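User: Is it possible to get a 3D structure for a protein together with its bound compound? The compound here is nicotinamide-adenine-dinucleotide. I've pasted both below.
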Amino acid sequence: MQRIDSIYINGEFVTPHGEERFELYNPATEAVIGTVRLADEVDAERAIAAAKAAFPAWSRTSKEERIAVLKRMHAAVAAREDDLFEAIVTEYGAPRSRSRWMAQYPADVIAQAIEALESFEFVEQAGSAQVIMTPVGVAGLITPWNSDAGFICNKLATAMAAGCTAVIKPSEMSAMQTQIVTEALHAAEIPAGVFNIVTGRGEVVGEVINHHPDIAKISFTGSTAVGKHIVESGARTLKRVTLELGGKSPTIILDDADPAQAVPLALAAGFMNSGQACVAGTRILVPRSRQTEFEQAFAGAVSQVQSGDPRDERTEIGPMVSRKQWQRVQDYIRLGVEEGAKLLAGGEGRPAGMAQGWGVKPTLFVGHNQMRIAREEIFGPVLVMIPYGDEAEALAIANDTTYGLSAMVLGGDTERAVRVTQQIESGRVLVNTMAHEPKAPFGGVKQSGLGREMGKWGMQAYLEAKTLLVG
Ligand code: NAD
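Assistant: Yes, that's possible. Here is the predicted structure of the complex:
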C-alpha cells in the first residue's frame, strides 16, 4: 500500500490543506494499492499564488537559461523511466510494451520542447515594428489519466519553454505516476514556484483554475464535455485555452487495399492504448463490394488479439482504468447489440481466463454511422465496421461526426489515398502508416479541440505578440 500525502507548491512537497483520501486501484486485480490525499480550493489558491510570484523572474530568463533547466528536467525524468514503467503497469494497466513506451515518452517530449525552443524566434520584424512574443502568464495545466506523465511533461516543458509558470492539476486516478514525475521535477532543481502540482478533483481544484483571474491560460486534455465547460468558465476572465478532447476517428479502407496490410494497421489504430486513446480509429469504413472478405479478415484478426493481464508479454489490450470505465464500455457493447449492430467478435464480459480485473473482450461490430456506438466516444476496445458504396460516400461518413482529431486512409495507391485525405476534416491524417511525428502539431478540429500542441505551434499557444514601435 502506497500512501501519497503531499502535493508540490513553491519548490516543496507540502501536506495538502484538503483532507479527502482517494483510493488507488490495480485495474488488473481490482485491489486497492494505495491512497492519495487530495488538494482542495485552498491548496489550489496557494499554488496559483506561488506560480504568480515566480512568473516575473522566469518570464525574463534567457533562452539559454531555460534550455539549461529543461535539460536538467529531461535527465531527471529519464532517470525515473523504470519507476514510471512499474507505476504505469500497476496503476494504469497498460500492457508491457505500451507501458515501456509511455515511460520513455515523458523524457522524449521534454527533449522535443528543448528542440522547439532552440529554433524559436521570439522577436520578429513586421515593417517598422518589432514583434516580441511574450509569455501570457500563469498556465493552468489539466491532464487525464490515460497518459499521465506524458501529458504533464509535455504541457509543462512547453509552458516553461515559452516563459510561463504553471499550476498542474493531474487526474486523481494516476497519483502514483504523478508522484514519480513530481519527484523527478523536484530533483531537476527548477526554480521555486515555476511549477506546482496539486492533485485533486476536477470539480474542486479544477474549478479554481477555471475561474481564477491569475490564471492566464488553460491547456486541457480530457473529455469534450469538460473542455466546453472550461471555455465557458474561462470566458469571464478571457482565458486563452488549448483543448485536446475526444474523438471518433475514421479509418477508410479503400477498395484497392490489401487486407494483409490494412487489417493489422486498422486494428493497431483502433485498439491503441487498450482503446483508451483520444486518437483511436474506432470507425472502420470498408467498401461494400468487399465487405464479406473484410468481415472474415477482421473477425479472424480480432479473435487473435490478446486482452487481459498487462504483465503477460502476449497481452495487447490491458484492463480499463477503473470499474466505472469498465462498466461504461460494457454498457456500450450491450447498446450495440440493442441497436441491431452485428457482433463480429468479442461481446460483453471479461476476456477468457480473466476472473477478476477490468478486462474487456476486444469487440468488433458491423453497423451504420447513425448508431450511437458509431457516434459516441466509447474509450475502450470497441470498434464498428461501416460499409460504404463509393469514395464520396466513404468521405461523407468519415466527416459525419462532431469530432475531428485523427483519420487513417489505407489503400494500394498512395497518391490516391493522399488525395482522399485532403477532404477529411481532422487535425491529423495517416496514410498506410501508424507512424508518429512529435515535431508536427497535434490537435483537433470541430469538437475535438482548440489549438495545437507540439513544436513551435505548441509554444505559440503560451505566447502573445507585443508590438513595439520606436520613434
Ligand atoms: P475528464 O475530462 O473527466 O478529466 C480530465 C481532467 O479534467 C482530469 O484531471 C479531471 O479531474 C479534470 N476535470 C474534471 N472536471 C473538471 C472541471 N469541472 N474543471 C476542471 N477540470 C476538470 O476526462 P478523463 O475521463 O480523465 O479522460 C478521458 C477523456 O479524455 C476522453 O474523452 C478522451 O477522449 C480525452 N482525451 C483526449 C486526449 C487528446 O489529446 N485529445 C488525450 C487523452 C484523453
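The chain has a mean pLDDT of 98. The first helix runs from residue 41 to 59.
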